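Hello again,

I reread your note about wanting to compare the complex against the isolated chains. To keep things tidy I'm splitting this into two emails, and this first one only covers the full assembly. Below are the input lines as submitted, including protein chains and any nucleic acid or small-molecule components. They are followed by the predicted structure of everything together. The single-chain runs will come separately.
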Amino acid sequence: MGKVLLAGVGATPIGEHWEKSLRDLMVDASLNALRDAGVEKKNVDAIFVGNMSSGYLQGQEHLGSLLATWLGIPGVAAHKVEAACASGGAAVHDAFMAVKSGLYDCVLAVGVEKMTDASTDQLTSALIMADDQEYTAFAGFSFVALNALVYRAYMDKYGAKQEDIALFAVHDHEHAVHNPLAQYRRAVTLDAVLSSPLVADPLHLLECAPTGDGAAALLLCSEEKAKELGLKPEVEVAASALATDVLSLHDRDDLTTLNATLRAAERAYKIARVEPKNVDVAEVHDAFTVLGVIHLEDLGFAKKGEGWKLVKEGEIEAGGKIPVNMMGGLKARGHPVGATGVYEVYDAALQLLGRAGKNQVEGAEVALAQNVGGVGGTVAVTILRRVR
Amino acid sequence: MGKVLLAGVGATPIGEHWEKSLRDLMVDASLNALRDAGVEKKNVDAIFVGNMSSGYLQGQEHLGSLLATWLGIPGVAAHKVEAACASGGAAVHDAFMAVKSGLYDCVLAVGVEKMTDASTDQLTSALIMADDQEYTAFAGFSFVALNALVYRAYMDKYGAKQEDIALFAVHDHEHAVHNPLAQYRRAVTLDAVLSSPLVADPLHLLECAPTGDGAAALLLCSEEKAKELGLKPEVEVAASALATDVLSLHDRDDLTTLNATLRAAERAYKIARVEPKNVDVAEVHDAFTVLGVIHLEDLGFAKKGEGWKLVKEGEIEAGGKIPVNMMGGLKARGHPVGATGVYEVYDAALQLLGRAGKNQVEGAEVALAQNVGGVGGTVAVTILRRVR
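Full-complex prediction:
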């Protein structure tokens, strides 16, 4: 089986897009990816759209046909993929599978979410659908509250301090300053983070990823198709893996590790034939500061219970042990939930393409993107590599 | 690339399952498929769940992880697939792709929908999400109204009479009598159909598929895995194809043919290397009587404008030119929207397995199932064949 090549990437800025509809966002991102690849849309033969809440928030399902229609390529195979906040990563996985299967040669993986039109109540309802409605939501938990439990459990178990964990948000904001697509292009101090309002104790507002509107797209091609089109993509999708865990925290033995990350990472490393030490730059799903820290451990970049040390000691910066979320991460680039997994791969790809500007990690050859659905009910891991 | 084998099938009865939740239904169907295959659940490595409206109707997304959890196999790759009423067929397509890709060996394709807890208003809102919310729904169309337009256009263009088209419902009900899983196990007369209340002129109530609760599941295996497990499946998934068309009727040149059916069927016939004349029995997506007739034409079983003649002349019965919807079709077996595409493949498989009881088409070797999303925005076509 030949390589799955990343022929082009595209995205919209993340923010409050009052002037753009859900369809506008996904069409914009897709056209950007096609333009980036230099591929005419007529070559696309399948589209997978990652999205979580378009039915509930926009009253719009059937996004596959909708996007194919508005891209002007009705006829292609297309459907929506949903795995809560891992919908984007799951769409990337479908696109990877599609090319690997030999059934498709030129596939768009798109992620889109439009959240800022909704009220806070609507968003709270939409997001808790990522967990078990009949057990967790009926018991009164919000999605933030579940992550606050994880935060407490982590600090208790490993003796980590909030001021160390909260540094993850400071790191993200610092880098978002130089990302033209980021939702919050401003630095924040640790003091600002820790004095921001409590959302769910111990989570402060500035430790939580914001809601936003945005779409991102990737164009994946088979080697044969790339050759036929005269493309020479510099990056391949070396692996895409998807794994689940029990949906809810109340069924887990340990709140401080995500089994789905362990499983998806193990598979992805195996498929790509790399180890954590080979990864030059990573995008991790820091929906909440503590999750960013936990992911560093689960992905094999730090020992269990010591992820926060990497952050504190500057090891997640360029030149450090494992540069992470160099474009601002969920916290500052933004987190339009169903789109996030695709933005992460987009940001990882920029590093390998040498297009990350002031956030560039020099000489990056292997990049990893990790996308989490719910509180780890699903995790998608994508590994990109420069084509040798 | 080896064959994709259908190792087992399972389903729940369709009806008003007040006593069962969405999760119960999909777990029941999945366990039935595993039991049917004689495969232990630990062998499953991926699950694709077709569902349209769980977010809007149950406040529950993230069905992939939910099902993996409640099946007791957290860890597997899993996500939800949505393509309106073609969600089930799209999930089958993902499962087919997954095995073809070589990434997975033993995959569950599951379809589930629970509709009867909702009010008529909620269902009307949920179903129109299959079309373009900002154009079609905002203009006041219900999903039934769109299909009524197709009905008028078909009768006008081809001079077909409603009493001939409505016979499709009579046919479906006749066969549902002998289907233990069917929602309406009773025959209806043509007179009863035509004197039932008008829902959207000219569509009478008994020309429209009902709403219902249900789940169906298929277990797909690679040849290698089947061998490893000592299985000898009698049926293979010879092809699965997915195609789109412009989402809405207002963008189409012709309301009386579904381009997505033409495209998906062409691809599926090509992959399976069969022609319409080789198909021994078919399941078509008769959400409304007129659609059943149109599908007969678009799938190549009748000339354009003459599908109704097949129905009138008894050619869709056992022994006829192309036996269709032998287990009751959407009209009488039932139409839990996101599950329907999987039920269709289930019903087609029963024929090849010789398990269709009084509805059996003797000696059937090749079966086709067609699943439509929206008014043809997406169509999935699956072709099954007895393993030679």
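For quick reference: The two ends of chain B are 17 Å apart (CA to CA).

B.
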